[in-house]
Design goal:
Number of strands: 8
Radius of gyration: 32 Å
Number of domains: 4
Shape: flat
Largest sheet: 3 strands, antiparallel
Order of helices and strands: HHHHEEEHHHHHEEEHHHHHHEE
Number of helices: 15
Strand content: 15-25%
Helix content: 40-55%
Distance between the termini: 105 Å
């Protein structure tokens, strides 16, 4: 066939028909030569200049919206995705708006991120706390535009980007952020949930973006708290690793197990002893932190009753022997004072009150 007749013959043929014809009428060498003569496919080269412009666009917008009720997540084409602080609910809601609605320079006004959204004193503290503790609204809007991502983790990542660019750094409270990370670490091993309510970490102090803490490690069945210091940006990964590495063999009462196996109550007792081996001044700072910022309503520390209640607690002293003797008038005021000092510290002897609860039982409270 001449080239013109060949072209005419193939004009109405499908790709499959053309390939079948080639297989039936051409040698392998002829078929290979046809592909060798095809022009090379163009190589896709990333437009680095375009990417740099997009990054600059995002950085500039974050600067423009600094110290306002906005956290800018990303800019895609001409759409801005961001979190906006709701004063009434004290939470951040995920939203989107056209890029044209935002001011282009610091100090300019706009439909979004205008001067009316500047942080004011009457809600500043609440906003900072919400920011540090990742108080976000439901995630359906976020999930719609960020398939497969976790809103909480993305919010933390964006906050780190802000921090690295020195934007809104005065918002950051390292301690509150660290406590939020501690509360949000899941304990996936069911047997450990019987022993540990929260990440086995005791935050002792913070300085700038660094967190000093003690974490539980078990070697040869001996629990020990080890001191560590990390930047807030690395804390979450480390806490997850601590939980994953913690290997406590928990058994039910009366159940058989290896020599390293213990019941939940036995593990709690052993861990309490290990916690009280921490340096006394550090232990005091730890207690003060968790008294001021409880991890939950039911547990101030990562394990139930980790520390004996003293100056840092306000739990009722419901010791039957003590109450019976006290309210049977068998204890004098001086005996009571000595009892409180010996059992609960000097704070208790100065700040106790005798009260009657809703059931008519008298008890000691602070």
């Amino acid at each position: 066939m001449s080239s013109s007749k060949t072209a005419e013959y193939f004009k109405d043929k499908s790709e499959e028909e053309i390939m079948n014809w080639m297989v039936a009428n051409m040698t392998p060498e002829q078929i290979r030569s046809c592909f060798d003569e095809l022009p090379e496919a163009p190589i896709s080269v990333p437009d680095t200049k375009k990417e740099e412009n997009a990054e600059q666009k995002l950085d500039n917008l974050r600067e423009v919206c600094a110290n306002k009720k906005y956290i800018i997540h990303k800019v895609i084409n001409d759409t801005v995705f961001f979190w906006y602080y709701l004063v009434k609910s004290e939470k951040w809601v995920y939203s989107q708006a056209p890029f044209s609605d935002f001011p282009k320079n610091v100090g300019e006004d706009g439909e979004e991120c205008g001067n009316d959204t500047l942080i004011k004193d009457n809600f500043k503290e609440e906003l900072y706390q919400s920011y540090n503790q990742n108080q976000l609204t439901e995630s359906s809007k976020f999930e719609e535009h960020n398939m497969g991502e976790n809103q909480n983790e993305t919010f933390i990542k964006v906050k780190n980007e802000y921090n690295n660019k020195n934007i809104n750094t005065e918002w950051v409270n390292t301690l509150l952020s660290a406590l939020h990370i501690q509360k949000s670490i899941p304990i996936l091993k069911p047997e450990l949930k019987e022993v540990i309510n929260f990440t086995p970490v005791l935050i002792e102090s913070v300085k700038d973006d660094k967190v000093n803490y003690y974490y539980l490690s078990v070697n040869n069945s001996v629990p020990k708290f080890i001191e560590a210091n990390l930047s807030i940006n690395k804390l979450r990964d480390d806490f997850i690793e601590i939980v994953d590495d913690l290997n406590l063999e928990v058994i039910a009462p009366g159940q058989a197990g290896s020599s390293s196996a213990m019941t939940s109550d036995q593990w709690k007792s052993v861990i309490k002893t290990a916690a009280n081996d921490i340096d006394a001044s550090d232990l005091n700072r730890i207690k003060k932190i968790y008294d001021k910022f409880p991890l939950s309503d039911s547990s101030k520390y990562f394990i139930d009753d980790l520390f004996n209640e003293n100056a840092f607690g306000n739990r009722s002293l419901n010791n039957n022997y003590f109450n019976n003797n006290l309210f049977g008038n068998k204890l004098s005021k001086e005996t009571l004072k000595d009892y409180l000092i010996n059992k609960y510290g000097s704070y208790a002897s100065k700040h106790y009150k005798i009260e009657t609860n809703q059931f008519g039982t008298k008890t000691i409270t602070f």
